[in-house]
Amino acid sequence: MERLQSKGIDPEKYDAVRLIVCHSGEGRGSSFAAKFQKEINKPVKAFEGEVFLSFGSTTMKNYRDKYVTQIMASNPNITRQDAERIAEAKLQADHNDYSVTKVNKNDGQTTTINSAPSGEPAKYEISTVEYKPVHFPPKQP
User: Fold this and answer.
1) How far does Cα 116 stand from its chain's mean position?
2) Whether the Cβ atoms of residue 45 and residue 139 lie closer than 8 Å to each other
3) Nearest CA to 46 among 16, 21, 29, 67?
4) Res 47 pLDDT > 70
5) pTM of the model
């Protein structure tokens, strides 16, 4: 809670929380999500397995394109690939903490993911989406 509050985030202001963190719902009552829910006393949605996100929304794409344009304009000798890598890192640094990202819910479908760490050249892989949300406390039927 201290870490959240130090970042200006107060769970009391929200009706519910969605944790977009791989494996955060695994372990049922002993999972991170279950423990977090008890700490904040608000409903929490989390995920079992990996979570696939997209920064491809129109708003995020527009930010990324703007960053690439600015980087290339101020560095005429830079390659487009390097400008895109820098823009991606800047996008994550500027927006990662507070941006609403789109969770890929297409269970069973394949998707292309960039598995490279922030600031590294893109490394694309094919993976299968396994959408496994869990709720704490459990939703009633």
Assistant:
1) 14
2) no
3) 21
4) yes
5) 0.64
